[in-house]
């Protein structure tokens, strides 16, 4: 299922509860690596913006995209304790 169809389902549920489309949309992307940042900005954001036009031509909510960078810097040290 594409993003447009998923977002349309979410908006329909929101309309049933609030009787209007959301004014703000927040997208949370977790685990984005260095090589995916450009793809996320150039491909995913315009794809979400096109979803809004599929719902209604005059629907223009504020879009916020939060990207959490993928960092794996876990270091585990063992401590030697002498009694």
If you had to describe this structure to a student in words, what would you say it looks like?
By secondary structure, this protein is of the alpha+beta class. The protein has one domain (3-69). Helices cover 42% and strands 20% of the residues. It contains 2 helices and 2 strands, in the order αβαβ. It has helices at 3-18, 37-55, and strands at residues 24-32, 62-69. The chain has a two-stranded parallel sheet. The termini are far apart.
Note the total helix count: 2
**SSE succession:** HEHE
Overall SS class: alpha+beta
Q: What are the segments in which pLDDT stays under 50 over at least 5 consecutive residues?
A: none
Shape: elongated
What's the gyration radius in Å? Answer: 20 Å
The end-to-end distance, rounded to whole angstroms, is 61 Å
Arrangement of strands in the largest sheet: 1-2
Strand content: 15-25%
Mean pLDDT, to the nearest integer, reads 78
The domain tally reads 1
Percentage of helical residues?
Answer: 40-55%
Largest sheet features: 2 strands, parallel
- Total E-strand runs: 2
């Amino acid at each position: 299922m594409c993003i447009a169809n998923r977002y349309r389902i979410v908006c329909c549920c929101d309309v049933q509860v609030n009787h209007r489309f959301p004014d703000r949309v927040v997208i949370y992307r977790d685990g984005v690596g260095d090589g995916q940042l450009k793809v996320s900005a150039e491909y995913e954001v315009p794809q979400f913006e096109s979803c809004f036009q599929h719902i209604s031509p005059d629907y223009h909510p504020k879009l916020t995209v939060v990207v959490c960078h993928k960092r794996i810097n876990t270091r585990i040290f063992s401590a030697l304790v002498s009694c």
